[in-house]
Amino acid sequence: RRIRLPRVDTDVLGVPVGLVFFVPRADGTVTAEGPSPAGAMRWEVDAEAWQRLAAACPPLASVEPDVEALLVNTVHGNDHHWIVPVDDCYRMVAVVRREWRGLSGGGRIWPAVDRFFEDLTERT
Asked: How many domains are contained in the chain?
């Protein structure tokens, strides 16, 4: 399932990037992963902070552990918040790896990310 959400205040999860996905795990932990030229970077998220966020945004409470994720893009003024299969998140990581050039990503990276989110919108 792919569900576009209104803005979700992910700042409470303590992840300092604007292109990231949050995966609740079956053991109760939550990881945040963000794309980089080397693949996905991973952070541990405070599980209690995730539970508070899920209580404030009921669709998050139904995210299937290890299968679905909250995908967020707030880079360059975007405001995308989605519940998607984890596979979609790793497709986004692949887009970033494929299009990244130089130290800052180059001119191809952000148009490619924008197309990725446009595709999500069309498929929903």
From this structure: 1
Q: CA 39, 43, 48 angle in degrees (round to 5)? A: 145
pLDDT tens string 9-38: 888 898 888 999 999 999 999 999 999 998
Asked if the structure places residue 124 within a domain, the reply is no
Averaged over 54-75, what is the pLDDT?
94
The pLDDT score that the predictor gives to residue 123 is: 83
The range of the structural domain enclosing residue 43 comes to: 3-118
Do the domain assignments include residue 18? yes
Give the integer Cα–Cα distance in Å for 78 and 119: 15
Helix ranges restricted to H, the chain: 47-56, 58-61, 86-99, 109-123
Rounded to whole angstroms, the Cα distance separating 36 from 20 reads 10
| The pLDDT of residue 2 | 87
Distance between CA atoms of residues 40 and 32, nearest Å: 9
Q: Does residue 50 sit within a domain?
A: yes
88 lies in some domain: yes
